[in-house]
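Tokens as discussed.
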């Protein structure tokens, strides 16, 4: 089993979840900077890229655009590329490409509940076909033998299937299994089943394998993280939605921000978005972040509505500057 950088990483890991159209190159740079990645006591342990289709990367037509989705900066290391698909041969091909790009690891999406993804037999649908899931892990390992290959799963399709699903995955020797502790049917609508993660840890321990287990689902802060690690015995946790509007999330020493600080980071994030991916992603993808940045202070709602309606970045920038100059709340403190 190739554990790569996971071997020496301090536990418990606290890693950033892959989120399509959220953890793009712009937001990841902002998170790495404001969570002080790489600094003592700061940063996520590992950053995950948003998922990319292996079929798209393997085809001439889609490759150029998707290669842009795989761009990253050095400050985001260790960084893991997440791939989705259902054709083992494409995983081998694309794993080679990802290794050549200098990624630190490759993760395989086995948890996505999206119908179009599941119809291809990919994402969460793989829990219904463990032999194919194993074949995909092995095909990815064959394409990138020097990188740690991990998987991100749900606990089952309509019910908890950890008793059979986890041993099947362990047979293929993944470096890490991240468990979103809900079934595909549950989406994100119920509390996570931490008992399933605790059981997964027991199964892993009994197997004697070195595979790391990461828990995921609804973890919103460092106290939640410690609680889940203590409850399940897992090696680390993954946080996703908690980072919306809070790129300071992984720096535990950062407890508050001023309204001014948060709005300035929002502008910086927007400028990076326009510079790095403004030509390939719709601006509405960026605006979704505004809901999270512009909230929790007086008159936030009015400002948010104006920004959402603004026709271009120049208007947004001017409006935010005006707010910071004129509002009595610009230096109010927000608790993160
Ligand atoms: C907008 C959005 C996009 C997501 N995209 C991905 C993805 O590309 N790959 C993946 O494995 N999970 C994806 N997820 C799921 C998250 O990685 C995570 O498993 C889920 O949100 C539960 O964790 P959380 O409660 O900490 O957010 C996405 C979730 C959201 C909200």
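Sequence:
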């Amino acid at each position: 089993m190739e554990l790569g950088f996971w071997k020496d990483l301090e536990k418990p890991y606290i890693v950033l979840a892959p989120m399509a159209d959220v953890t793009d190159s712009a937001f990841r740079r902002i998170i790495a900077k404001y969570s002080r990645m790489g600094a003592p006591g700061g940063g996520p342990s590992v950053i995950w890229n948003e998922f990319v289709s292996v079929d798209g990367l393997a085809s001439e037509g889609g490759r150029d655009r998707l290669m842009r989705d795989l761009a990253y900066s050095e400050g985001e290391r260790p960084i893991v590329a997440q791939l989705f698909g259902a054709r083992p041969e494409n995983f081998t091909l694309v794993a080679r490409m990802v290794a050549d790009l200098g990624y630190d690891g490759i993760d395989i999406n086995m948890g996505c509940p999206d119908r179009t993804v599941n119809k291809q037999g990919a994402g969460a649908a793989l829990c219904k076909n463990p032999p194919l899931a194993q074949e995909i892990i092995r095909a990815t390992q064959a394409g990138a033998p020097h990188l740690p290959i991990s998987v991100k799963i749900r606990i089952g399709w309509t019910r908890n299937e950890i008793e059979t699903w986890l041993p099947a995955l362990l047979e293929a020797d993944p470096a890490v299994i991240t468990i979103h502790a809900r079934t595909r049917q549950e989406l994100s609508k119920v509390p996570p089943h931490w008992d399933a993660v605790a059981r997964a840890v027991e199964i892993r321990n009994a197997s004697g394998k070195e595979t790391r287990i990461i828990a995921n689902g609804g973890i919103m802060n460092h106290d939640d993280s410690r609680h889940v690690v203590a409850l399940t015995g897992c090696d680390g946790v993954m946080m996703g939605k908690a980072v919306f509007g809070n790129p300071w999330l992984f720096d535990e020493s950062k407890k508050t921000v001023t309204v001014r600080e948060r709005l300035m980071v929002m502008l910086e994030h927007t400028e990076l978005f326009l510079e790095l991916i403004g030509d390939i992603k719709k601006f509405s993808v960026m605006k979704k972040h505004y809901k999270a940045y512009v909230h929790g202070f007086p008159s936030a709602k009015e400002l948010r509505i104006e920004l959402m309606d603004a026709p271009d970045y120049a208007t947004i920038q001017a409006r935010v500057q005006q707010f910071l100059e004129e509002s009595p709340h610009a230096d109010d403190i927000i608790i993160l």
